Each structure stands twice: as C-alpha cells, then as structure tokens.
Amino acid sequence: MKMKSKFFGLNAKLALAILAVGSLFTSCYDTENGDVTVPYKAPDAVYSFVGTVTNDVTGQAVSGASVTISGGTISGSATTDSNGGYQIVVKKDQTGSGKFAGGTVTVSIAGTSNYDAASASISAEAVANGQAITYYKNIVVNYTTYIPEGLKVSSSATTSSHVFVYSGEDETADNYVENLDIINDTDDPLQVTKSVTVSKGAMVTGDSENIYGYATAPMVIGNSGNIYGAKTRATDDVLTAIKDYIKADLGGTDPTPTFDSETLTYTFVLAPKTALKNLTVSYTYETKNYTFTYADTTYSIVVKRVVSVAFSNTQVTTENYHGHGHGHGHGGDLNAGGGIFE
Fold it and tell me: With left for phi above 0 and alpha for psi between -120 and 50, is residue 187 left, alpha or beta?
C-alpha cells in the first residue's frame, strides 16, 4: 500500500476550530460510496460525553459527584474528578441490533446531603461506524438559596450549527487543503488517524476589560458592560453573584476572550481504490440569554458555547476523483477557520 501527500497552507474565512492530521495506518472500512464493494467492517461508532459539575452559588467544582447517562441504547456512568470533570465514552456497533438510532440522552447527577439531584438533556444524533462525536454538558447543582436576596435570574436558550468542509481535490476551491489530497490506489484498506484540535467551552463578548483584563470575554453579548465593565450601578455583592452564576453555568470557569480548545482523535478507513473527497467538522452551539434583575437594574447577557463537535468523511472511487494524490500526511500550518492540518 502506498499513499502520497505533502502539506500546503490555506487561508479560510471562518475562524472557529483547529485541525491537525496525524499518521496513517492499515485496517478495514466499509465505505459509504455506492460504487465500492468491500467485505470488511468499520470500527464501532464512538459517543463521548464530557462536562463538569459545579456549585450553583460559588461556581466551584463538585468532586466525587455520581454522573450517569441514559437514552436509547446509550448508557454509562462516571465519578467527577477533583476539578468536577467527567467523561463517559460509549462505543456502539451501528450495524447491529443494539445500534443507537439517535434521540434524547439524559445526563443525571445523584443528589447528596449537600446538594439536590440534577439532570440535563442532550439531543444526540446517530453516527455511523467509523465516526465519532463528542457532546459537552455542564451540570449546576443546587446547594443553597441564591445570594444576595432579591436577585432574580431567568434564561432561555437556542441551538445552532455550523459545518466546515475541507477537500484536497480542487486546488482552486476556497476549502482546498493539499494535505487532504489522499488516494488509496491499492487493493488494501488504509486506516487514517487524525489528531483534531477543536473548539470547546464558551465564549463571551462585551466590555469585560475592567473586570477580567480583556475587552472580549464564555461569548457574552449584549448588556455585559454593566456586569464585566465599569458602568455598573449594582453592589459588588450583586456583581459577584452574577459572575458566579455564569461561572457555574459554564462549568466552573470564568469568561475567556475566545473558545478554549482540546485535541480529539478521529479515525476512518479509506477503502481500496478510493479517494478522500471531503473531511467534515460539524459543530452544534447553544446560545443562552440571561436576564438578571436587582432593584431597578436589569442586566442582559448572552453566552455561546460548544454543545458538540462531530467528524465525518466522504469517499469516492479513484475514477471519479480529480485530485493528484500528493499528500503524505506530514505536518504543517493552515490558517483556516476550521483548523490546522498536519
């Protein structure tokens, strides 16, 4: 088997995530391309559930909390670490009777003598064998009555999505990445493992410079100058309570200028006599609107966070591919909105 590739940089218009392509190995894969018939099976689909459990008053991490997930054929459990974090990974054979068909997955926190039980729902989608998806859900548990007295909060949330599609086929396209010009012209399957650095967490915008030392801060939009800036009329206790509430809802972290990042691994198999048509990174976002009221003052804040990020690929037969196949998967730099390919 052989594979050719080299790195080439590309400037893109989008600025949300960072990709890195790693090494190449061999395995088996059942391509979705109808023109290819292969007698082997892709690895199980991987569902990852990640988040933190925090105190609703202080925003501090809750360690040792019992976390369970359930929904359809998905189930699992974990205990939060010293930072309040949990990770539950479930592998599913999507060709068998126990496959996950998509739907609501509930994340539950068992109650204790110190805090009430809590839960949250995730609208999870089904992915095929050979694909992986990660969902993020932070849970805030109720310890005590909110302080200071008289501070009221309401919130509403909407979801949105964005898809980044990259290809190594057409050198004139805006989404072209030479490093993704991958052809498997052998009679054996070719497994490709990619280390993908993606966006996570939440991003705040607004006049937060006087509180956090930067002009844009989990993404706060709207009247955040009254919370994170110098234009406040509320007492310091109220400002602290508002920031603690947002911190708890963001999983125990203070606002940052941009999305945080983490590296995930995505593995797929290029079938014999096929080429990589596209590599896709799909994000789901939650935009949450907070309204805080204290005395005669109202503060409106909008926070945008990453709910999930999923990877997929499209393959075509070599006869229907118009690239050159000159990539080895070597490292390099790509200043693109969707990521950096190496």
Answer: alpha
* Model pLDDT for residues 229-285, shown as the tens digit of each residue: 433 434 667 777 877 888 888 777 776 667 888 888 888 999 999 999 999 999 999
Q: What are the residue boundaries of the structural domains of the chain, listed by start? A: 24-320
Query: Which helix (DSSP H) or strand (DSSP E) does residue 212 occupy?
Result: helix 209-212
Instruction: Report the distance separating Cα 57 and Cα 75, nearest Å.
Output: 30
pTM of this prediction? 0.54
Asked if 185 and 326 touch (Cβ cutoff 8 Å), the reply is no
Round the CA-based radius of gyration of the chain to a whole number and report it: 23
Q: Which of helix, strand or coil describes residue 232?
A: coil
List C-alpha distances in Å: 246 to 149, 217, 263, 290. 17, 12, 25, 9
Q: What distance, in Å, lies between the first and last C-alpha atoms of the chain?
A: 21
User: Which residues are bridge partners to 306 per DSSP?
Assistant: 285
- The single-letter code of the amino acid at 325 is G
148: left (phi over 0), alpha (psi -120 to 50) or beta: beta
